[in-house]
Design brief:
The complex is a heterodimer of chains A (70) and B (210). Chain A contains no helices and 6 strands. In chain A, 0% of the residues lie in helices and 31% in strands. Chain B is mainly beta. The chains are: A mainly beta (70), B mainly beta (210). At the A-B interface, strand 2, strand 3, strand 4, strand 5 and strand 6 of A face strand 2, strand 5, strand 6, strand 7 and strand 8 of B.
Chain lengths: 70, 210
């Protein structure tokens, strides 16, 4: 299964929604409501967002509506 | 939410709602040791969203999962980057985690990088019988049970770097230890953990069994 590659990421928006519940048919070991991969390749690469996390530069008090990132 | 990027080194974010609590951002010095106490801020949205259906997943705590498994070194490849996973994991089911590498052996070509996993019901990343996996730059928020979980204590040579885990929640529908969960549950010392941050867990940040 492929949604973009590392070289050409999928930059448009896509939502993959999985449906089902615990009593529905399932594949042994893998279950249901699942992307299960056996002896294959799964590639999923979205638009690069960097950095994915950071830290605050200065303390923000309760009630404040702004934060400064580092 | 607005971002003022006029100084790209120090962007200012204006929030939709005011902060309920004080968010501390200091670096404390104790003798020669500096402890970075600055509040972490993670990005949870991505262009690719993989999710359980919004209608039933939350009520049933039964979300979507990704399960990578076949026997034999490098018998399967999963390369994941910049994907958002939400409403994931299946509570009450051992083995049904958001991202699960299961009994493969070596996975030199596989990695998960820059994923955002939030609102999860049964762990985030599980490494089980798997070696040489790379997990980097991922953000995890509000996931029940152990979040980065090395299962059997045989797993080695995995690289877990630059990940952020926030708000690990206890689970009463998994193993006993998940009632006192760890953001990073580390069962073998021969795995590389570097520059990971754990913030606001219901119990442990880093749990080592050495």
């Amino acid at each position: 299964m492929e949604v973009g590659t590392a070289e050409f990421p999928y930059n448009s928006k896509i939502t993959i929604t999985m449906r089902g519940n615990v009593f529905d048919p399932y594949i042994p070991i893998y279950g249901n409501k699942v992307i299960g991969v056996r002896k294959g390749v799964l590639d999923m690469h979205g638009e690069v967002r960097s950095p994915t996390w950071t830290q605050m530069e200065t303390t923000s008090e309760a009630g404040s509506s702004t934060i400064t990132l580092s | 939410m607005k971002v003022d990027n006029s100084n790209p080194q120090k962007p200012v974010v204006t929030l939709d709602k005011p902060l309920k609590f004080r968010h501390f951002a200091g670096i404390e010095q104790f003798g020669n040791t500096k402890v970075d106490m600055r509040t972490e801020v993670g990005l949870l949205t991505r262009s690719i969203v993989y999710r359980g259906d919004p209608e039933t997943s939350k009520d049933n705590q039964y979300g979507a999962t990704i399960f990578i498994h076949s026997h034999g070194d490098d018998s399967v490849i999963a390369r994941l980057s910049m994907v958002e996973l939400t409403d994931v994991g299946q509570a009450f089911k051992v083995g049904r985690y958001a991202v699960h590498f299961h009994m493969i052996g070596a996975v030199h070509k596989s990695y998960a990088s820059g994923l955002a996993v939030h609102e999860g019901y049964n762990r985030a990343f599980t490494i089980h019988g798997t070696f040489y996996l790379r997990l980097m730059f991922n953000v995890v928020c509000h996931v029940k049970g152990h979040n980065f979980f090395i299962e059997d204590a045989v797993e080695q040579f995995n690289v877990i770097r630059n990940n952020l885990v926030m708000g690990t929640e206890n689970s009463f529908s998994l193993l006993n230890t998940d009632q006192t969960p760890a953001s990073f549950w580390i069962t073998h010392p021969n795995n590389e953990f570097q520059n990971n941050h754990a913030a606001g867990s219901d119990r442990y940040g880093f749990w080592y069994d050495l």
